[in-house]
Design brief:
CATH class: Mainly Beta
Strand order of the largest sheet: 1-2-3-4-5-6-7-10
Helix content: 10-25%
Distance between the termini: 26 Å
CATH superfamily: Lipid/polyisoprenoid-binding, YceI-like
Strand content: over 45%
Number of domains: 1
Low-confidence stretches: 1-16
Mean pLDDT: 88
CATH topology: Lipocalin
Radius of gyration: 17 Å
Number of helices: 2
Length: about 170
C-alpha cells in the first residue's frame, strides 16, 4: 500500500497543496472483563494542507467528544464523563507530516488537556470526491490522564483500539 500513496499524492498533489476539507468518523473498540464493545463519533472535521514535495502537513482535525454513540446510552454517558466533556469538549489532531514509505501519519494529539506526539498507521485511496483515509492506532487512556470507566465493579481496559476514517475534498 505505501507505493499507492506516491501515486495518489502525485495525482492529487495540486489539490492537496491548496488544502482539503476533511470530514469523517472515529470508531473505538474497548474491552472489559465482560466483553468487547464499540462506539462511533461522526463529528470529525477540519482542514489539512499538504506540501506534496516534502510530505509536510498543517491544519487541524477535531472531534466533538460529546457525540459518541455506542447504541447504549449509559455507556455513552460514562464515555462523556471519562472525557470530562464540559471541561474538554474536543479532541484535535494537528497533522505534521506523512511518511509514505512507512505508511505513517505523524502529528500531535490534543486530548483531555494533554498534547502528545503520535505516529499512526495510515491508508489512503481515491474517493468519489477526493482522498479517502483510514488511520488505526492503540490509545492508552492513562497516557492522556483519562480514567477508564468502571461499572458494577468492572473496569474498561486501559488500551482502546481506535480507527479514524473519512474523506478529504479539495477546496
Amino acid at each position: 500500500m505505501p507505493r499507492g500513496w506516491l501515486w495518489i499524492l502525485a495525482l492529487l498533489g495540486g489539490a492537496l497543496a491548496q488544502g482539503y476539507q476533511v470530514r469523517g468518523e472515529v470508531v473505538y473498540t474497548a474491552q472489559a472483563p465482560i466483553g468487547t464493545f464499540s462506539g462511533v463519533n461522526r463529528t470529525l472535521q477540519g482542514e489539512v494542507l499538504l506540501d506534496p514535495g516534502s510530505g509536510s502537513l498543517s491544519g487541524r482535525l477535531c472531534l466533538d467528544l460529546s457525540a459518541w454513540d455506542s447504541q447504549e446510552p449509559l455507556r455513552d454517558r460514562h464515555t462523556r464523563a471519562m472525557f470530562q466533556v464540559e471541561r474538554y469538549p474536543k479532541a484535535c489532531l494537528i497533522p505534521e507530516r506523512l511518511d509514505p514509505d512507512k505508511g505513517l501519519l505523524y502529528g500531535t494529539l490534543d486530548l483531555h488537556g494533554v498534547r502528545k506526539p503520535v505516529a499512526w498507521s495510515l491508508e489512503l485511496s481515491q474517493g468519489t470526491q477526493g482522498v479517502r483515509f483510514r488511520a488505526r492506532f492503540l490509545l492508552r487512556l492513562s497516557d492522556y490522564g483519562l480514567k477508564a470507566p468502571r461499572f458494577m465493579g468492572m473496569q474498561v481496559w486501559d488500551d482502546v483500539q481506535v480507527e479514524v476514517r473519512g474523506e478529504g475534498v479539495g477546496r
